[in-house]
From TrEMBL:
Plays a role in repairing double-strand DNA breaks, probably involving stabilizing or processing branched DNA or blocked replication forks. It comes from Dongia mobilis. This is DNA repair protein RadA. PANTHER family: DNA REPAIR PROTEIN RADA, DNA REPAIR PROTEIN RADA-LIKE PROTEIN. GO terms for cellular component: cytosol. The keyword DNA damage applies. The middle region has homology to RecA with ATPase motifs including the RadA KNRFG motif, while the C-terminus is homologous to Lon protease. One of its GO terms (biological process) is recombinational repair. One of its GO terms (molecular function) is damaged DNA binding. SMART domains: AAA. The gene is radA. Residues 65-224 form the RecA family profile domain. ATP binds at G94, D95, P96, G97, I98, G99, K100, S101. A motif (RadA KNRFG motif) lies at residues 261-265. The keyword Hydrolase applies.
Length: 487
């Protein structure tokens, strides 16, 4: 009898290899390849046995209405597309201690007239109860007809998938099930340890199958790697219907819930929360909160009008350019792409003649938000030029636009939405690319907002220099007039 072939699987990306190696050739991770039990091969032929067939329908057939359960937490409902869908699977990832368990505990207790089950594999039931009491989630919110003090959320501490499936596979199964976390579950028929690729993939597949057959909503908590990706194979993200990332700095009070994938709503949507001693509080207007601590007349600061999903968000871009005694100056970036910063520095130096090669550059997106869209290029360049020349950007100015390698400023999407949000918050001027038009082909006009259209990065530098010089001249004239009046 032939010996079964050994199977070595990378625990970071799920790639399989015939032999062990120190480095995964697929994702580049070191010491992540682990031997797993061989999987029986599928028979090569159908051996004459036919299946029962597949039922086909037309595209214009009757579509059942999607049943959603609004949680009552507006920011969470925005990210999920209006609420939790019946029979769907949602994967939530984030750094340890960022607030994933706190958020889900608030979600299940905020649902009205809904039975929920919170299954923890990392904490005891008493720990979850203590957190609920600390957050003020008491027994006042209960099912209709329930007894006084009877909570509609059931708690359990378990890691065996077989036990969890036996508890949920019944006619009176809960409508919402939270698994915290998927990396702690194990199936006894597999030889690998909990958290490995085989265990995570198998446990998730069985839970998702049960959720769709029984019709309850499944919320899975996933650990993340050092790179910020959900631990385990990427196939886990393809198995679920929605993937959410909970972002934020540990020492910062803002938390961002970002939708990376959503089969029942828009992707790249964000929800903003504020961490306090009473849990996570919603932030309905994040633009006003991100700009609440602005200080005027400071060089190296600009305001970017961005779009996160369907929501316009205004954030402050901070840059600091200082001389460096090192042969290789340092570049530090927080909240933005470091490769894109290097490109903008090269464009400023090559196309605009600014000397930045011997300077250290520090860039920060205030508020803990991470920006990914290229429309922030113009605002970043404005902050860099302001810091290098020590000329402050006017406080009533916003900027957005994509920068090309030749220095041209390119158009971006949803310009009118960005401008309306800026006008609502009291901004008076905006720097944007030329030829920006509405969907109907008409030029954009926003009441109360003066538009400064530029086609090249050099035009922005010239405008900033002339604007600051004009303001300085006006301030000097005003001061002399006051002195003359006093005399």
């Amino acid at each position: 009898m032939a010996r079964p072939a050994r199977n070595y699987v990378c625990q970071s990306c799920g790639a399989a290899f015939p032999k062990w190696a120190g480095k995964c050739e697929a994702c580049g991770a070191w010491n992540s390849i682990v031997e797993e039990a061989p999987v029986e091969s599928v028979p090569k032929g159908l051996s004459g046995k036919r299946g029962k067939g597949v039922t086909f329908v037309t595209l214009d057939g009757d579509v059942p209405q999607t049943i959603r359960r609004p949680t009552g937490i507006a920011e969470f409902d925005r990210v999920t597309g209006g609420g939790l869908v019946r029979g769907s699977a949602v994967l939530i990832g984030g750094d340890p201690g960022i607030g994933k368990s706190t958020l889900l505990l608030q979600v299940v207790t905020a649902l009205k007239n809904t039975r929920s089950a919170y299954i923890s594999g990392e904490e005891a039931v008493e720990q979850v109860q203590l957190r609920a009491r600390r957050l003020g989630l008491g027994p006042d919110d209960r099912m209709p007809g329930g007894k006084a003090g009877e909570m509609k959320t059931e708690l359990a501490a378990a890691t065996s998938l077989r036990d969890i499936m036996a508890s949920l596979d019944r006619d009176d199964a809960p409508e919402i099930v939270v698994i915290d976390s998927i990396q702690t579950l194990y199936l006894d028929s597999l030889d690998s340890a909990p958290g490995t690729v085989a265990q995570v993939r198998t446990c998730a597949a069985e839970l998702i199958r049960l959720a769709k057959s029984r019709g309850f909503t499944l919320l899975l908590v996933g650990h993340v790697t050092k790179e910020g990706q959900i631990a385990g194979p990427r196939v886990l993200e393809h198995m679920v219907d929605t993937v959410l990332y909970f972002e934020g700095e540990r020492g910062h009070h803002f938390r961002i819930l970002r939708s990376v994938k959503n089969r029942f709503g828009p992707a790249n949507e964000i929800g903003v929360f504020e961490m306090s001693d009473r849990g996570l509080a919603e932030v309905p207007n994040p633009s006003a909160l991100f700009l609440a601590e602005r200080h005027g007349n400071v060089s190296g600061v600009s305001v970017f009008a961005g779009i996160e999903g369907t929501r316009p968000v205004l954030v402050e871009v901070q840059a600091l350019v200082s001389p460096s005694p090192l042969a290789t100056p340092r570049r530090a970036v927080v909240g933005w792409d470091s490769a894109r910063l290097a490109m903008i520095l090269a464009v400023l130096e090559t196309r605009c003649g600014l000397g930045l090669a011997g300077s250290e550059v520090y860039l920060n997106i205030a508020g803990g938000l991470r920006i990914t869209e290229p429309a922030a290029d113009l605002s970043v360049a404005l902050a860099l030029v302001s810091s290098l020349s020590d000329r402050s950007v006017p406080g009533d100015l916003i900027a957005f636009g994509e920068i090309g390698l030749s220095g041209e400023v390119r158009m971006v999407a949803q310009a009118e939405t960005r401008l309306k949000e800026a006008a609502k918050l009291g901004f008076k001027r905006a720097i944007l690319p030329k030829r920006m038009t509405q969907a109907g082909g008409k030029p954009i006009r926003v009441p109360g907002l003066a538009l400064v259209e530029i086609g090249h990065l050099q035009e922005m530098i010239d405008w900033l220099y002339n604007e600051v010089r004009s303001n300085a001249l006006q301030a000097t004239v005003s001061a002399s007039r006051q002195q003359h009046n006093k005399g």
